[in-house]
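Dear colleagues,

As part of the handover before I leave the project, I'm documenting each prediction I ran so the next person doesn't have to rerun anything. This entry is a single chain, and its sequence is reproduced below.
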Amino acid sequence: MSVTGIPEGDVLEGDPRFMRLALALGYRNLGRTWPNPSVGAVVVAGEPGAERIVGQGVTAPGGRPHAEPLALAMAGAAARGATLYVSLEPCSHHGRTPPCTDAIVAAGITRVVTALEDPDPRVAGRGHGLLREAGIAVTTGVLAREAARDHRGHVTRVTQGRPSLHLKLAQTRDGFAGAPAERLRITGPIADGAVHLWRAHADAILVGIGTARADDPSLTVRLPGLSDRSPLRVVLDSALRILPSTSLVRSARDVPTLMITTRRAPIHAKRMLASFGVEVIGVESDRSGRIDLAAALQALAERGITRVCCEGGPQLADALAAADLVDVFTRITGPNALGGAGGLPAIGPALAERLASGHLRPVETRTFGPDRAVTYERSA
């Protein structure tokens, strides 16, 4: 029995409700806190059945301050004897700021409820352990599945050395992503708005040079009130064939833009791009001379990137699937068929195999006006 009178580890009736609020707070800042995870925290005072929220916080843009001290500061003296709900295990190591566990103990919190243990080796159960040593009751695993989705980027970066990758593809009703000699409009404005929201919650958006040259995309967030949420734009270009006239290059001083190329890319092209404010980094190439995709994602992780949204074409999508780098895949199907011959199939052989084998399993179906989106996740 803990000092609260609640048995250690017990889940109370109100725990899922308050954890959902913590998760919603953390979700709000996804894409803004890297290299740190976006964590939500809620301070709840009062006896079961008569609780009241006295503080809440979310990891600030840039990763500091953390959610817990912000929530505790809002609660003030009301935090003493209260319960703290956190979507990820509180940190226990000294960085630019003291550990969150110290702040929790000092505030007089008597119970902590978390969704996930942090796999970061600097924490990894140590935060929970320090709280228990201080006499605080600790309950873990509340809404763990939902939290694992929200913290997928952080977990993947810590455990696999790469960011999580959300692949998005649009296809016609008969399964094509493109038409000969024309740019094909597949989805409507509601689906397009959903894609922009995915961008806003990503640390980086990724395309290949084929998409960059054929579509000349801006890859920015164009939703009301979210124009400042445009993520880092990343283009894979093994020979630096991108032209200075493209939107990505011309706007690089306004929206951060990174070109990932091979180590053999021409020096003059690197200098040209640098003059426009484009950053260029080189990674290892594969046997065909193209960019090694695993090395490219590793390079992003080393920069602190945790969540990547890929909007490249079918060729890049299939290469990512073949390299087993896809964690989430969303296929948006428009209402119209292409018909005729010569269309570019949206789903390549490697991605088709991942879907057929259940390696990527469907978890959600949504409609965006006339468009239908099915989201698949990597099997555990």
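The longest strand covers residues 360-368. The chain has 13 helices and 16 strands.

All the best with the project,
I.
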